[in-house]
Amino acid sequence: MVHNHPLDQLSGDEVRAARQAVLNARKAHVLFRNIYSVEPAKAELIKFLNAEHAGTLSPETPRPPRRARVQYDVVYDDRSHEYMESIIDIATGKEADLRRVDRGVQQSLTVDEFREFNNVCIESDMFKQAIKDLNLDEKFEVAIDPWPYGGPDVGEVTPRYTQGLCFAKLRHENPDTNHYAFPLPIIPVMDTYKKEIIRIDRLATGGTEDGLASGTVGEKVLEHCRPAEYVPELLDRPVRNDLKPLNVLQPEGPSFTVGDDSLVEWQKWRFRVGFTPRECAVLHDVHYDGRSVLYRLSLSEMTVPYGDPRPPFHRKQAFDFGDAGAGRAANNLALGCDCLGVIKYIDAMLVDSEGNPSLSKNVVCVHEQDNGIGWKHTNFRTNRAVVARSRELVVQFIITLANYEYIFAFKFDQAGGITVETRATGIVSVVNIDPGKVSPYGNVVSPGALAQNHQHIFAVRIDPAIDGHANTIVTEESLPIPMNPKTNPFGNGYEVVGRAVTKSSAIHASPFTNLTVKMTNPNKINPISQRPVAYKFIPSPSQLILADPESIVAKRAAFAHHHIWVTKYKDHELFAAGEFTNQSQKEVGGVADAVARNDTVENEDVVVWNVFGLTHNPRVEDWPVMPVEIHQLHLRPADFFDRNPALDVPANKNLSSVEVGRDTDETCCHTDVTTNGSGLVQAAPTTHLQGTGSIPMTDVNGQ
Amino acid sequence: MVHNHPLDQLSGDEVRAARQAVLNARKAHVLFRNIYSVEPAKAELIKFLNAEHAGTLSPETPRPPRRARVQYDVVYDDRSHEYMESIIDIATGKEADLRRVDRGVQQSLTVDEFREFNNVCIESDMFKQAIKDLNLDEKFEVAIDPWPYGGPDVGEVTPRYTQGLCFAKLRHENPDTNHYAFPLPIIPVMDTYKKEIIRIDRLATGGTEDGLASGTVGEKVLEHCRPAEYVPELLDRPVRNDLKPLNVLQPEGPSFTVGDDSLVEWQKWRFRVGFTPRECAVLHDVHYDGRSVLYRLSLSEMTVPYGDPRPPFHRKQAFDFGDAGAGRAANNLALGCDCLGVIKYIDAMLVDSEGNPSLSKNVVCVHEQDNGIGWKHTNFRTNRAVVARSRELVVQFIITLANYEYIFAFKFDQAGGITVETRATGIVSVVNIDPGKVSPYGNVVSPGALAQNHQHIFAVRIDPAIDGHANTIVTEESLPIPMNPKTNPFGNGYEVVGRAVTKSSAIHASPFTNLTVKMTNPNKINPISQRPVAYKFIPSPSQLILADPESIVAKRAAFAHHHIWVTKYKDHELFAAGEFTNQSQKEVGGVADAVARNDTVENEDVVVWNVFGLTHNPRVEDWPVMPVEIHQLHLRPADFFDRNPALDVPANKNLSSVEVGRDTDETCCHTDVTTNGSGLVQAAPTTHLQGTGSIPMTDVNGQ
């Protein structure tokens, strides 16, 4: 593979070269965690991108050097590990930089560590005894979900730990039987490097009447539990048979193109899809119609603290990007993306623990979809309606974190808008609860299974480049004006008050003043409105982290205390909760520290972090797999263009649509068979409406 | 047409019978406004519906009598009007009730009044002089948009008025040239019944420097304005040619049925689509899988106050349901709905000013759409992904109010959810502004055209029937617990505090406490969670009305001061801002008055009103037709079911989807041709990817 672009992922050969360089330099037992491309410094990359956009790229254009970041442990003879990072210059094979990281911090978990945790548990006498004490029925085996250890308690000094939530799984011919229906009230804790179970935490199983006490873990903790299957072949009721196919066909193919270097072009949009093991898909250099909008857009972090105060549930707090890595947890989508229409998949280059390249197929998908009416006006004088549909381009990835799934999508529309969508789905985290009890800390979603109340708090990192890199963030609020003869004689007036953010800041959402965040370029004035060109968004006023500010849970997620953080751009400052979240006791190097630098951010290279979330107090309907909970962040142009950018979207009638109409014979429907603009004949199906009964179809597509 | 159901619209014959009954009774000159079916009293209707759901309907089942509400003016010889309402018993042709309405209130505007306003202006010497004073270029003619007069000022006693926003329209061979680009700084006011222009209000055209003063209306108020066309054939740039067709095909037809009596059945949902001239589509008797969810669901009211304090702009305040009537303003959708897939249209029975039936075709559309992934889980042990798409049923209508459009949709999903969606689009209301000036009261979106800041505040009326009619509304908030050894030793715990609404109340949204409104049935307990069955929603914390509480603007929209109103059910109490909004000076008989009754609403027949809005400070991108601004209200089951109701949605791969894949030859894409569950062969198109260039297609559907 020839690498044309500095934002390309590493090739297999480049991974191998970086691996070898580290092995040569260390001459030790190395356990590889990640090898991936180092994003060039912005100052360097901009020069290249400017030449690219100006159309002046040539073989002589200086290119930022290709560099790999290699993250690995050196394993010493005493089984101790030292975590290091090397920056390898690919062209020379030289180690350009070596960073020996303080042993007090922990890198994210790897799949190998997950696997090992399971093995260590199974062979641990302590664990075996704990399971024996539970006196499980013969029909069960044990299934363990490895989790990050959460934040150690005040004063607790921990080596690298992994903890596990344990479940009983029916011995079943079907390996996809759902073990989450049978939660076991123990959490084993492993010393990760020593590969030893050092403790088994016993979990409370009580209800409201038991307070924080452990409840009465009975002899038969699972007797009252019952299966909760979700794979179709195990369902206890038939699947619906009245859902008829709805097919999206794109007879002329998609309207987008994806180049080998992950350059995506669609409807005046042009951007690159990058990938990192931690963030998964990252968007770079987002342009609309030749104008710069964003330098970089990424999901930065999320934390999921559980609100059950009974220890050790305070350590159920995952940082799914920092503790696990969204890129490494990403689904291979051909297996189950099941998007409609024409789909393009993008692969990701990962490595195994030996440092060998391992291509993860189909990690990101790109497709188009219809999102209803985009704009419409009917002239009531002539009855002429002009209506344009809204087509969207979706760049999507899906991550699985043990029981839970997140679906992340960047959606581009034809009106210059970008939406960052998150969908939460998967299986809610449950713990055992005694028969007949209910709990203030969650909801019983299945007999014996308490789904604990929790929050999901996300951070999106927006690196704007609104017609250039010097931008100013402005907050705008709509405020009442008291009725007065001079400025508001009839009391209907209100004012829009804008404030430029001059210093790096944390800002709260304020829905009742309609607080809007504008990312402006004060150096470029819209000639029509005479206001600076801008993109804007209204930050969702989600509930922020509920944990006590003095708690470890809250301190390690300082980012979760404000909806907006405005910081000055700094190379490689990408993670809202800091670089090392796994087993952290407080946020270090995250947005709070960045804001504390008190940088000037007016007319500067500025970064905006948007924090939003979902307080999830589960419903029975969230079981056994929850319907998606959707959140959308909308970035929209505000005086960036000279009109509605979607005004030139063709307002054609879609000729494949069919009306279930009424003819003289009310039981028969008419059919449109018409010619579309491209000269192709679209044969629409014939429908026959029979009273209020079902509507059988004859497919006339030549089949 | 045989009428089977008490919720059916009137037939043409019924309209004629009602009309004749009124003419017989009044023996006067009658100007008809509306004739439509009277919804039976709930107590009566429930008996019928219960029999219907029990399957015990028979010819002997008592039916509520068919009744028509006839709204009309009696026009006296002195040209004065008296507004009356008759209730006509259809079977007997008798006037069951007559209501002579106080002349101090005004019924909504009719299309005829709109038309007359235009004629009266054109013939008015005062208006002609005002236009002459503007010294318009020969190339223009005048176009007038009739508006409701807004709220008269304190102490102003008004007969029925209509006001008009005036524009210049290019004399053009194309009647759809956009006159809104040329706003004229006058508002004529008509005495509606006398058909006389009684005043011409002169509008300020100044900018920031002019304050409330009128600005300097120049000799040539339009010289700096420029065309802003939106109909495709008049665009000054070509439409996009790179948007390829995206077709939704339903080869086996839709999954829904719509009966003659507008009974809709789809995916365990069953409800009736009713229609009124004021509310447009109304949903009745909404059931899921045989269980009652809602008795009635409707858009109740909206108000659009403008925030420009310069008089007379304080009278730019429309109540689009009460002043105009959403049903009468509804688009005939076949003209421009352009939904995808298989669409069923529903007609509406209206009347002309003679009281004759006038069928408005295709006012409501029903279709299915895909809304992305509905739920997904991947078993990381086996890599088995199970994913179900979310299919939605959409019941949609679109209203045009002069310059502006609203798209309203009720969406049903397979997980028991109902979404009420509003999309705002159309042309923003603009007024003239002097050359080169900008204004604090809006944004210059086109030279000479100031789009004024305004709000849209909507009210949705939800009449729940959660497993029956005795329901209790509960608010739930998630609140922090200070860290303390006894109940929250590590500080991660939080509590969910529920409060039953015992008396009719107004409630504010509270996003930072995650305030959730639960509509519960305290008499039915979910056997799994042991909590009352419920539906819930999180009220959007939209900005409420900004006008000074003492202003007429605010007083006539008391409903716009709170997000949630909880009232005791009362027959025919349907309108959040009261029955008569046109020219009102305060809200009478709206939700505030209903709450003031201080009714007991616990375990009672209760109604919930949700108010939400959009503060719209226009962008240049909103011109000349604005991209949709979308708001969604989600009603979701909360412990209503015993599991995720969508668990039985088939998790099949959609076989018509195509992967733009990579084979050994990177320029060629592979094609899936596979068999779907129904035995039909879906031939997917073949794509040929040529580098990053275009992707030509061969349609293989036998054509």
TrEMBL record, chains A, B:
Domain Copper amine oxidase catalytic: 246-647
Positions of modified residues (2',4',5'-topaquinone): Y404
Keywords from the named record: Copper, Disulfide bond, Metal-binding, Oxidoreductase, TPQ
Enzyme Commission no: 1.4.3.-
Residues annotated as catalytic: D320, Y404
Keyword Transferase: no
Cofactor(s) this protein cannot do without: Cu cation
Keyword Metal-binding carried by entry: yes
Biological processes annotated in GO: amine metabolic process
Gene Ontology MF term list: copper ion binding; primary methylamine oxidase activity; quinone binding
Bound cofactor: record note: Contains 1 topaquinone per subunit.
Domain of life where this protein originates: Eukaryota
Pfam families in the cross-refs: Cu_amine_oxid
Description of post-translational modifications: Topaquinone (TPQ) is generated by copper-dependent autoxidation of a specific tyrosyl residue.
InterPro entries: Cu_Am_ox_TPQ-bd (IPR049948), Cu_amine_oxidase (IPR000269), Cu_amine_oxidase_C (IPR015798), Cu_amine_oxidase_C_sf (IPR036460), Cu_amine_oxidase_N-reg (IPR016182)
Subunit structure: Homodimer.
Family classification: Belongs to the copper/topaquinone oxidase family.
Name of protein: Amine oxidase
